[in-house]
Amino acid sequence: MKKILLEIITPERIAFSSEVDMINAPTSTGQIGILPGHVSLFTRLTEGEVKIMDNGKEVFLAIGGGFMEVSSDKTTILVTAAYKSEEINEKEVIMAKKKAEEALAAKPSGEALLEAQSLFRRSEIALKVLRRKKPLQLNN
């Protein structure tokens, strides 16, 4: 079966690099699926979850916003951040989500509102990727 090379790159590191069967990524207009031989494409990515399929196995990464370039044999994803589930600290994410919820409950405006919304959104994405690995045990 034909494969496509996928590289997910952040400013700090190469988060993922391997030949894969399929990529599913969050664009500004919705999810997009990429298979080997896909038509060339350049698109903006939003914060969300990248799903990678390879030999019947799924890998999920939480990503920040960025861009994706697709050619027939290679896909490059350039994003602000990218984390596999095993790289995410569950307790830190839960604490960040609670902090964001508290900030939003205070009904902030302007920059404070945008920052709280962004923290909440990133926390939700990280928790979604973690849930793919194992069910979360929340201790309230």
Provide structural commentary.
With 140 residues, the protein is of the alpha+beta class. 29% of the residues lie in helices and 41% in strands. Helix 1 packs antiparallel against helix 2 (110-133). The termini are far apart. The model is unreliable at 135-140 (pLDDT under 50).
Question: How would you describe this structure in keywords?
Answer:
29% helix; disordered C terminus; five-stranded antiparallel beta sheet; 140 residues; ATP Synthase, domain 1; 2 helices
Strand-helix topology:
Blueprint: E1 4-9, E2 14-20, E3 22-27, E4 30-34, E5 41-45, E6 48-54, E7 57-63, E8 66-70, E9 74-79, E10 82-84, H1 90-105, H2 110-133
Parallel strand pairs: 1-9
Antiparallel strand pairs: 1-2, 3-4, 3-6, 5-8, 6-7, 7-10, 8-9
Helix pairs in contact: 1-2
Protein name: ATP synthase epsilon chain
Subcellular location: Cell membrane; Endomembrane system
GO cellular component, one term: endomembrane system
How much is the radius of gyration in Å? 16 Å
CATH architecture of the largest domain: Sandwich
Helix tally? 2
Order of helices and strands: EEEEEEEEEEHH
Multimerization state: single chain
CATH class of the largest domain equals Mainly Beta
Number of self-contained structural domains? 2
What sort of overall outline do the alpha carbons produce when their principal axes are compared?
A: elongated
Total E-strand runs: 10
Low-confidence stretches: 135-140
Describe the sheet with the most strands: 5 strands, mixed
CATH superfamily of the largest domain, by name, is: F0F1 ATP synthase delta/epsilon subunit, N-terminal
Helix % is: 25-40%
- What is the CATH topology classification name of the largest domain? ATP Synthase, domain 1
**Strand-residue proportion:** 35-45%
Q: Please state the structural category.
A: alpha+beta
Overall mean pLDDT: 88
Distance between the termini: 47 Å
Function: Produces ATP from ADP in the presence of a proton gradient across the membrane.
Domain ATP synthase F1 complex delta/epsilon subunit N-terminal: 6-82
Family: Belongs to the ATPase epsilon chain family.
GO molecular function: ATP binding; proton-transporting ATP synthase activity, rotational mechanism
